[in-house]
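#structure-requests
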Amino acid sequence: MKYRLLGKSGLRVSELALGAMTFGTEQWGVDEAESRRVYDAFRAAGGNFIDTANVYSAGRSESFLGEFMQEDRERIVLATKYTGVTRSRDVNAAGNNRKNMMDSVHASLRRLQTDYVDLFWVHVRDFTTPIEEVMRGLDDLVRQGKVLYVGISDTPAWEVARANTLAELRGWTPFVGLQIRYSLLDRAVERELLPMARQLDLAVTPWDTLGSGVLTGKYNQDPDTKGRAALRGRIRDRDLTIAAEVVKVADEIGRTPAQVALNWVRGGEGVIVPLVGAKTLDQLKDNLACLEFELDDAQRERLSEASHIDLGFPHDFLAQFRSDRIVDHRA
């Protein structure tokens, strides 16, 4: 396991992050024993970056981590999130407002059995709370020592850029990380979010890097399986075509499709630290093996071509004015 700086900070994180969304059986995850095996294996592999949220498994994910981290809390870069609903029939127990922010971080600290969170994410932008309120509230948490760094997830690029510009002007704590959905099946973030992250020096932690399992190739094996039928309408023919190319590359180099899909994502420009959310120890081991090799340029190009998207306006229009296409006749 190698380590990377978390965006515009001095914080070192492992090149893969463990997503703890599957810790707890309240929604779609696994029990404490299997969660502990996954946690221990990630730590044994050198992983130090662990990501959860206050709403994962109704708080059970944080509670599990609070127990697991007791012996090595200081060695872990712990990230959690706020925004989602935490109390029923309470209009202020959701969103980005300062009250929910403060209530959420205190509840998370209790479940996590720690005095501070290394990275605190805004889980989703609510478009109601003024961004000034959000950034000032996060800065207060940093000044209080309850949070060390802040990040934002699932938010338009213009809003993130505005927030960090505001923080810079007013001397508040800026975002150092951006969490977004990104995979060979969904490359829409290449239009605005990824270029913004590179320009602002934000570390990117992509989620759903395997496209809800489609990129493992399991739905290509038999298009008429019960699983494929259950997801009919959600899986496009294009998705299966991309997955087929992933399977071909994987077969050629003796790797699994999941490893190839993860390798393609983590090999992008900038600081990209994919989230791996394994339900079982075997799944985690398979995902970690994506660090054992690198796709060559030809293989990356094949996958990129198979999953190509049009960047749209204004990017396609502005391409004609790129400096590398202009000849300087003064020379």
